[in-house]
Amino acid sequence: MDPKSTALVLIEYQNDFTTEGGTLHQAVKPVMDQTQMLPNSVETVKQARALGATIVFAPITFTDDYHELSQNPYGILKGVVDSRSFRKGSWGAEIVDDLKPLESDIVIEGKRGLCGFASTNLDFILRSRGIRTIALGGFLTNCCVESTMRTGYEKGYDVVTLTDCTATLSEEEQRMAVEKNYPMFSRPMTHNDFLVALAGSGEVTTEGRGYEAV
Fold first, then answer.
1. What is the predicted pLDDT for the residue at 58?
2. What pLDDT, on a 0 to 100 scale, did the predictor assign at position 211?
3. For 139-198, how does the pLDDT look when each residue is reduced to its tens digit (9 = 90+)?
4. How large is the greatest C-alpha to C-alpha distance in the chain, in angstroms?
5. Is the Cα torsion angle 157, 173, 141, 3 positive or negative in sign?
């Protein structure tokens, strides 16, 4: 796995999901705690960035009245509207402090639905940078991460799903997505396995929390 052609795509690491007081945090907190997805993600971003991978954030935002959506939304997007989540300019829509983007990172704009590709220029940016491998983490495991995974697979990317950098609404949904759906459209990996592959070795040294080929 070549870091120069690899992008770590971080889906909806926003306060409404990640942080106490966020509108949807209590719904995802049990699985977040189980997978340790936030500290794992912080470590992955730090090491992947140091190895030369592209760091891409894909937040979702809406206007205060959600006029980008149907007047009668249903399913997961109805839940977003009913909970008043991800309103542009609100604290809840901000990327969590632990993962604030650096100037060298890329923040994708225009995500209004589930798939990270559908309403954005993500594909254009990735191809412009010569990206061939995308590693996905974020929320929800079986919703936006899975939708982005499926599209990435069909667009010809080598897709990695970071199994311990994702969270959803229940342990059952997490397990079913990771065990049954992810292997059909991606290479499921723990964040440690991904970093080992990115470093170019089957072994890893973790002294100082760093990863290097040994």
1. 98
2. 40
3. 999 999 999 999 999 999 999 999 999 999 999 999 999 999 999 999 999 999 999 999
4. 56
5. negative
Distance CA 106, CA 180 (A): 31
Q: How many angstroms separate the CA atoms of 110 and 119, rounded?
A: 6
End-to-end CA distance of the chain: 16
CA distances from 142 to 52, 147, 148, 201 (A): 29, 8, 10, 30
| Total-model pTM | 0.91
Residues with Cβ < 8 Å from 39, sequence gap 6 or more?
Answer: none
Please work out, in degrees rounded to the nearest 5, the angle formed at the alpha carbon of residue 50 by the alpha carbons of 47 and 56. Answer: 80
Residue type, 28: V
Q: How many helices (H) and strands (E) does the chain have?
A: 9, 6
* Cβ–Cβ < 8 Å for 163, 36: no
pLDDT in the model for residue 212: 45
Closest CA to 4 of 200, 189, 191, 160: 200
Question: Which amino acid is present at 2?
Answer: D
96 pLDDT more than 80: yes
Distances from the Cα of 115 to the Cα of 60, 95, 136, 150, 183, angstroms? 10, 18, 12, 9, 18
Structure token digits, residue 201: 């070795």
Contacts of 43 by beta carbon, 8 Å cutoff, 6+ apart: 191, 209
Tokens of 61: 């935002």
